[in-house]
Amino acid sequence: MDQPTHRRIRSFVKREGRLTPGQEKNLAELWPRYGLSRPDAPIDWAAEFGRDAYRTLEIGFGAGEVLADLAIDNPARDFIGIEVYRTGVGRLLGALDGAGASNVRVFCDDAVDILASAFAEGALDEVLLYFPDPWPKKRHHKRRIVQPVFAAEIARVLKPGGLWRLATDWVNYAEHMRAVLDAHAAFDNVGDRDGFVSDPPRRDTRFENRGIKKGHVVHDMAYRRRPG
User: Could you say which of 26, 62, 110, 152 would form a disulfide bridge with 90 (CB–CB 3.0 to 4.6 Å)?
Assistant: First the structure.
C-alpha cells in the first residue's frame, strides 16, 4: 500500500470512530433489508419500493436522526440515504428496525458517485443536505460539496418543482451556498423569503446542536427546481 493511501485510510478511520457492538450487529443483520450497493445503471425506485410514492434523498445523514424520524413519521413516503461512515449507517439501521420502518434504502458510499450511478433524471421529489462538512479554512473551500457542478447534478435528479433543502451553522458556508444556488439557472430560492417553512418540520441534529453550543447561528435554505 502506498504511503499517501495509507494516510488517507488512517484519517478516515480516525474520523469515523470505532463501531459499537450494536452497530456491527445492525450492519451484519439489517443491511440485506435496507442496504444497497452502487449500481451499474439507475435504479427503478418504484420497483425497489414496490410503489411510486413521494421520494426524498438525504445526503450525508450523519447519525440518521433526521432520516429515521421522517421515515417513521411519514410511512406513505419513501426515503433514500447516503452516508460514507458506517457508524452512522449502523445507528440508522437500528432505529429503522426498532420502529418497523420499511420505506428506507441506504447507501454506504460517496454521495457524488451514487448520484451519478443510481438516479435517473427527475427521480426525486426532494433532496436534503443538512450540516455538510463546512471546510472552514479558506484553502479548503474548494472541498465543499455545494459547488456549481454538484448543483447541476442535484438539478438533474430532481423533478421540476422538487425541493432541495439545506442547512448549515457556518455563516460563511451559508453565504457560499446562496451564492452558488442563487446564480444557478435551475433553481429558485424559496427558503430565504416569503416565510417558507419546512413541511414536515426539520428536527435538530447532533451536528447542529454542537454548533449552537459554540454560539453558531443555524441557516436553513430551500431551493425549488425550475421547470425545463
Answer: 26
Cell of 217: 447561528
Residue bearing cell 451519478: 116
Single pTM value for the model: 0.86
* Dist CA 114 CA 142 (whole Å): 20
What lies within 8 Å, CB to CB, of 211 at 6+ separation is: 131, 169, 170, 218
DSSP state of 105: E
Q: Tell me: cis bond preceding 200? Omega within 30 of 0 counts.
A: yes
Q: Are strands 78-82 and 55-59 parallel, antiparallel or unpaired?
A: parallel
Alpha-carbon span 50 to 33, nearest angstrom: 14
How far is residue 9 from each of residues 85, 111, 114, measured CA to CA in Å? 12, 18, 20
All three cell numbers of 128, joined, read 436534503
Domains defined for the chain, CATH in brackets? 56-225 (3.40.50.150)
Cell numbers 420505506: residue:
103
Splitting the chain (228 residues) into consecutive groups of 10 residues, what average pLDDT does each group show?
34 59 95 97 98 97 93 96 96 96 97 97 97 80 92 98 92 93 95 58 64 71 92
Residues tagged active-site:
133
